[in-house]
Each structure stands twice: as structure tokens, then as C-alpha cells.
Design goal:
Layout: H1 9-22, E1 28-30, H2 42-61, E2 66-69, H3 79-93, E3 103-107, H4 120-133, E4 138-143, H5 144-149, H6 157-170, E5 176-181, E6 183-184, E7 195-196, H7 204-212, E8 222-224, H8 233-244, E9 252-254
Helix pairs in contact: 2-3, 3-4
Bound molecules: zinc ion.
Length: about 260
């Protein structure tokens, strides 16, 4: 829904204390899925700008390091127009906004329908434009399911190597701050966003083993967004990832 309730200041203070005590960092939160800052529909756009501003304000209130946002859908426009529309929307929402450590993370998408952001080039174009139009620092969040669905063959050894080389060239590995670890219910290039339990989809156990053993990805936090149909599903997916890690020095959480 569009409406959101601001967090209770006392809860926010308690969260800060607990995080400091347990050394829980970074805190990454996800924007509302209704937000489409690339929309040219004036009603959707106005709602999106104000909802996104709310996300920024709440992220600052709870002291989050990362706020994840989808680049939206460019329906009835070219992709270039959609990218411009999106970045102007971000700039409008972020006007006057200041937060010491908050970074906006642009999430790569599966490319279903007219979703922007399924190609690294599009994510890069957004970041470059945002640097000139907004005061908000921007980096990237990649989702393993979206990558495969968008046509990046990260399930195969050669495809993973190629994808990482391309990510390094186009995005810069240092700008990839977060990875959503999800298997994919649908195959390579299917352009569908259907998350599956780790090891049970088209990326598979061996695919995840290779991903988790990439030295260049070792410092990046992974977050599960796998289906949670039953109470134990999150724990099971987390355990699966841990067994595939070279060492079990991993922090994994889930976002919803
Ligand atoms: Zn997804």
C-alpha cells in the first residue's frame, strides 16, 4: 500500500543500541514495490515521489546504511526517456534531503515487461545521470535470480566469469554493495522475476557454490529473499548457503 507509518522514535533508538551492541551492519531496507519513479502518469508519479521521500526519511530515522530501490518501468516511453524520468523523480523526492551515511542502492531487475535496469549499462546510465542531478550517493544491489532471468548466465562457470568481468567494467565491483541471494524458478533469459529456494532453481547448488567462492564478492553482504512458505524455510536456505561457503564467516539476513 502507499501509506506508511513512521517508526516509533523509541523503537528507532532501541534498534540503534542493539545494532551497536551486536555489531549488526549494514542495515539495508527496501522501498515499497508500488513506487515507479519512471512513470509518466502524473498520479503514479506524484505518489511515487512522495512515497520515496517517505522511504528516505524513515531510512534516516532508523539509521539505515542502504535503501534499495527498483528503477521502475518505462511503459509508453523509450528506455532512455524512462531513465531520465526516473532520475528526475529521485532528484525531486530527495530535494533538501541529507543523511550522513545513507546510500541509495539501485537494484538490477529481471527485465519483465518494461522494467528498467536489467542491463548493467542501464544501471550505469542511471548512476551517471543521478550524479549530476541529485545529491544522493548511489550504488548497486544485484539479485542472483534477476541476473539469470535477465540473461546473465551466472549458473555456469564461464557465464559467471563473464558476468563479473562485465560488472567490473560497467558498474565497478566496489559499487556493488548488496546481493540478493535467490535461486530462480525460471531459466536463463526468461525475463521473469520468480524467486526459488537456494539450490532448487535454475542457478542450483553448484551455481551458488561458485558464486559464494568468488573472491571479489566475499566482502559483499548477501540477503535472502527466497520464498518463505513454511516456518523453517529461511533457516534452511541460510544453512544451504553456509554449507556452500568456503568458510562459514557469513552474515545473511532476509528482506521482505
Ligand atoms: Zn526479484
Amino acid at each position: 500500500m502507499w501509506r506508511a507509518t513512521p517508526p516509533d522514535p523509541e523503537d528507532a533508538r532501541r534498534l540503534r543500541r542493539v545494532r551497536a551492541k551486536l555489531d549488526l551492519t549494514p542495515l539495508a531496507i527496501h522501498c515499497n514495490y508500488l513506487i515507479n519513479l519512471a512513470s509518466i502518469d502524473p498520479v503514479i508519479r506524484a505518489r511515487s515521489v512522495s512515497a520515496f521521500r517517505g522511504e528516505l526519511d524513515r531510512a534516516r530515522m532508523i539509521g539505515a546504511e542502504y535503501l534499495v530501490l527498483h528503477p521502475g518501468s518505462h511503459r509508453d516511453q523509450t528506455i532512455e526517456e524512462g531513465i531520465h524520468q526516473f532520475v528526475h523523480g529521485v532528484a525531486e523526492a530527495a530535494r533538501g534531503f541529507k543523511a550522513a551515511k545513507l546510500i541509495l542502492l539501485l537494484e538490477g531487475t529481471a527485465g519483465s515487461g518494461s522494467a528498467i535496469g536489467s542491463r548493467f549499462e542501464e544501471l550505469r546510465a542511471i548512476r551517471d545521470l543521478a550524479a549530476t542531478l541529485t545529491g544522493l550517493p548511489l550504488a548497486y544491489c544485484l539479485d542472483t535470480c534477476h541476473l539469470l532471468a535477465a540473461g546473465y548466465d551466472i549458473a555456469a562457470a564461464a557465464g559467471l566469469r563473464q558476468t563479473l568481468a562485465e560488472a567490473a567494467r560497467t558498474l565497478g565491483i566496489e559499487n556493488i554493495r548488496l546481493i540478493h541471494a535467490n535461486d530462480s524458478k525460471t531459466p536463463l533469459g526468461s525475463r521473469r522475476d520468480r524467486h526459488e529456494n537456494i539450490g532448487e532453481g535454475y542457478i542450483g547448488v553448484e551455481g551458488f557454490r561458485r558464486i559464494l567462492r568468488q573472491p571479489r564478492l566475499r566482502q559483499i553482504p548477501f540477503i535472502l529473499e527466497t520464498p518463505a512458505a513454511e516456518e523453517n524455510d529461511d533457516r534452511r536456505n541460510l544453512e544451504t548457503l553456509k554449507t556452500l561457503c568456503p568458510k562459514s564467516r557469513t552474515t545473511t539476513a532476509r528482506s521482505s
